[in-house]
Amino acid sequence: MSTAPELPLWAALVVSALMVIGAAIALIGSVGLIRLNSFYARVHAPTLGATLGVGSLLIGSMICFSVLQSRPVVHEVLIALFVTITTPITLVLLARASLHRDRVEGNPEVPKSDHASLDRHDG
User: Fold this and answer.
1) Per the record, which residues fall in region Disordered (predicted)?
2) What is the pLDDT of residues 36-91, one digit of tens each?
3) Chain-centre distance of CA 67, in angstroms?
4) Burial class (CB in 10 A: 0-12, 13-18, 19+), 51
5) What is the DSSP string of the chain?
6) How far apart are CA 94 and CA 47, in angstroms?
7) How would you write 88-106 as a 3-class SS string?
8) Rounded to an integer, what distance in angstroms lies between the CA atom of residue 13 and that of residue 2?
């Protein structure tokens, strides 16, 4: 059975702090999903929690494996790039789809489309 490699104390403290911070931010985003009252408010909390929480976890992972391997490990940069790009795009697509659905159903709490006002003034 292999034993876990040992990190220097300074690295273990930094990595531990980043892991706890990342997990706490992700937890706050998850709680926001439950606590907020409308879909449009709910959709922001998990996306921010995912981006910031994963960022902290990835920085901790980079430090841990860079110290253990005595060379810079940057695989996590690709993961951070993909999360940073895809999370906001997913947020926008979900919000637009919900907004379209609510407008088609005639939900009075949703503002009218800007395209309708533009069509009136072009004529």
Assistant:
1) 102-123
2) 888 888 887 778 887 889 999 999 999 998 898 888 888 889 998 998 888 889 88
3) 27
4) buried
5) -PPPPPPPHHHHHHHHHHHHHHHHHHHHHHHHHHH-SSHHHHTHHHHHHHHHHHHHHHHHHHHHHHHHHTS---HHHHHHHHHHHHHHHHHHHHHHHHHHHHHHHT-TTSPPPHHHHHHHHH-
6) 11
7) HHHHHHHHHHHHHHHHHHC
8) 23
Q: Within 10 Å of residue 27's Cβ, how many Cβ atoms?
A: 12
pTM, rounded to two decimals: 0.74
Query: How confident is the model over 77-103, as pLDDT tens digits?
Result: 999 899 888 888 988 898 899 888 988
